[in-house]
Each structure stands twice: as structure tokens, then as C-alpha cells.
């Protein structure tokens, strides 16, 4: 359900059109920090947002970065990414951190080393 | 490096092709407490901004008309990035501390390593809700007091005012300083290591 929010910059109609009328991706398959990698180059005739995603994901790019660069809400970006994933045009590298418990000691050590090297 | 000329926004520093594990730390706090400043101090990219639209059944919102209303809220948040090594990339999220964003938080928090509660000692009450939410969610956190040059408080005074358990680290920092902000993140990870050592379960 989408409600028109007066004063918003983004026209809901435009966002609706981008996703073919869908307002949710059906799953939370993409975390904010899932890294997306393009598996092919853009082709002529491709939806411009899809082409832009393939260009920016030549190197791994987090879902949240894709959203920021496209200037689209994360929820809309997830739908676009789900289409590309289903078509095999991108792959997704999901976070390894456990969702509801503390991370492995090895991972914490890697994070600490990385931060100290900043 | 790729040319990003046809993409909107400024050229972006690409991650290594070996990067395969995104990690999250959330920086929470009241309005104007320095969340974005801290992100900027340690991020390797200019902090980016995006928004998430959340639809939430409005059970706790409004019972007046008996309609099972849903509320849709758009929340903007900032984030930055730190490449830790060839595989691990840490994303820092500056999350709004206001109460009405609690459902965004619960979603942001899931899968985060932990949180930094950034505190302005002149407005301690702004942090109560954040701390309550984190405790409720079971997300490990440290509290960092950003130095605004206000009257000095002792750690004991701040702990008492925040009702902060003794096991939660309390730090003082300058969010404008890269080194100081880095130390806050290091303290959070050390706190996680400590918690991890208390839990010998597999």
C-alpha cells in the first residue's frame, strides 16, 4: 500500500513505473550490506536503472550504495536487484555475520586488525 | 578504475573485486549529536545518504478509528564505508535516534556487529530511548560522549543519568577526529570480543 506523501520530491508514480507496479520484493533477500557484482555488461534496450546498476557493480557494491547512487529508496532498489538476480545478470555476496548472535572470534579479530590499520 | 561518468553523483572509489563480506556498525543518537561527523571522520568515501520506506502495521500508533491502518514512513540515513581487508568491508550507519523510527532500527540492528550510542552530555535524556531499544534488542553497544565543550561530568554522573549498566563501556570522544572515532570503533569491537569470551557456547 502506498500513500501519496505531500511534499515528497520523488513522485510515487515514477517509482511505481520503475518496478512495474510492484511495491515489495517479496523477500528480504538483500541485506543493506549484501555486495552486488555484475555478471554481464549492459545491453542496448535495457531499463536504464538496470544498466546503471550493472555499470556501478563491475566491482562489488553494497545494496545501500547502489540505492544512494541511483537516488532511489532501498526498497525500490531491492526490487530492481531481485530482477537482475533472477535473470542471472548480477550475483549477490551475502554478509556472513550471524544474525542473532555474536560473530565468530576470527571475524572480530579481522575487524580489529582492519580498524587498527586505518 | 571504472569510469563513472554516466552514473549520477560523484565518482566512487570501487571496492576490491575480492570483497565478499559486508559488516555493519550503527551509530545512534539524537539530532545534531555528531553521527554524520563521526561517519565522515573514519569513512573512506564521502558519506552517502539514502532512504528506506517502511510500512508498518499501526497497532501501536492509533486506535481511534478502529481501522487496521498501516503507516508508511520514509527515513533518511547516512552511511560511510571502511575497507578492512581484501574480503571484509565495514559499513557505518548513522541512525536517527527519535522514537518514531524504532521499526527502522530493529531492521538496521539485525545482523549488525554492534552499535555506538553517541551522546551529548548536555542532552543526556536524548539517549535514553536509544539505549532502551538496544538493550531490548540485545544489540551490544558502547556509549561515547561527544565533546561539545560543555560542563564536565564524571563518568559516574553520566552512568547514573543514563542508568547504564557497569558492563557497558563508557567513552569520551571527539567525533571530528579520525583517531578518536577510530578508537570508539575499536572499543566496540573489543567489547564484542569480551562478550564473546563470556559465551563459550558454539
From TrEMBL, chain A:
> Superkingdom of this entry's organism?
Bacteria
Question: InterPro entries in the record, alphabetically?
Answer: DUF742
As recorded in UniProt, coiled-coil segments are: none
Sequence segments annotated as region (Disordered) = 1-24
Q: Where is the composition biased (Basic and acidic residues)?
A: 1-13
Protein name per the record: DUF742 domain-containing protein
TrEMBL record, chain B:
Q: Name one Pfam family in it.
A: ATP_bind_1
The alphabetical list of record keywords is: ATP-binding, GTP-binding, Hydrolase, Nucleotide-binding
InterPro entries linked to this entry? Gliding_Motility_GTPase, Gpn, P-loop_NTPase
Keyword rRNA-binding, does the record have it?
Answer: no
Molecular-function GO term, any one: ATP binding
Give the family per the record: Belongs to the GPN-loop GTPase family.
Tell me the PANTHER family matching this sequence: ATP/GTP-BINDING PROTEIN-RELATED, GLIDING MOTILITY PROTEIN MGLA
What protein name does the entry list? ATP-binding protein
- Organism, scientific name: Streptomyces katrae
